[in-house]
């Protein structure tokens, strides 16, 4: 499972931060940061989700008010 985070879309509500510790508040930018992620050429940040964090990652994606976070299973199908 992997997560994709479009930081440009983020509006800094930080709801994801409350759901998964991989998201951290960046008060300087007014947006969340996804720890351990790599930025693709299109500006989206991507990282693998550990098995023990799948539930938290899913909630982080579900609570984002602007759908900046997407979650994909191992087959590449979007879950959230």
UniProtKB/TrEMBL annotation:
This is Ferredoxin. It comes from the Archaea. GO terms for molecular function: iron-sulfur cluster binding; metal ion binding. Keywords: Electron transport, Iron, Iron-sulfur, Metal-binding, Transport. The keyword Ubl conjugation does not apply. Gene3D superfamilies: 3.30.70.20. The keyword rRNA-binding does not apply. InterPro entries: Fe-S_cluster_ET. PANTHER family: FERREDOXIN.
